[in-house]
Amino acid sequence: MKTLRQQNRPVISYVPRVEPAPPDHAHKMDGFKDVWLLRGKYVAFVLVGDHFRRSPAFTVPESAQRWALQVRQEEDM
């Protein structure tokens, strides 16, 4: 059996991108507060202070909204 390569590779966690606003070519999803359709994927933009945090791309809009709710809860703490 082959051994897995790069076993000691560090895990890189996702750091949300900071942007001034959602891009113009993104389409707001009806029924969701923070979810936008961007290049065929669902992305959440959450306003934190004076900038937006962008989520990773999701295939389901509910997942993006859940991410946005978690970011809002973390900011309230």
Structure in words:
By secondary structure, the protein is α+β, with helices and mostly antiparallel strands. 21% of the residues lie in helices and 27% in strands. The protein contains 1 helix and 5 strands, in the order βββββα. It has one helix spanning 61-76, and strands at residues 17-19, 27-28, 35-38, 41-48, 51-54. Strands 1-5-4-3-2 form a 5-stranded antiparallel beta sheet, with helices on one face. A hairpin with a 2-residue loop joins strand 4 and strand 5 (51-54). The longest helix is centred in the last third of the chain and has 16 residues, at 61-76. The chain is extended. The model has no long low-confidence stretch (mean pLDDT 84).
Could you give a quick summary of the protein structure above?
It contains 1 helix and 5 strands. With 77 residues, it is an alpha+beta fold. A hairpin with a 2-residue loop joins strand 3 and strand 4.
Top keywords for this entry?
extended; 5 strands; 5-stranded antiparallel sheet; single chain
Q: How many strands, which pairing sense, and closed or not: the largest β-sheet?
A: 5 strands, antiparallel
How are the strands of the largest sheet arranged? 1-5-4-3-2
Average pLDDT reading = 84
Please give the alpha-carbon distance between the first and last residues: 48 Å
Uncertain regions spanning at least 5 consecutive residues? none
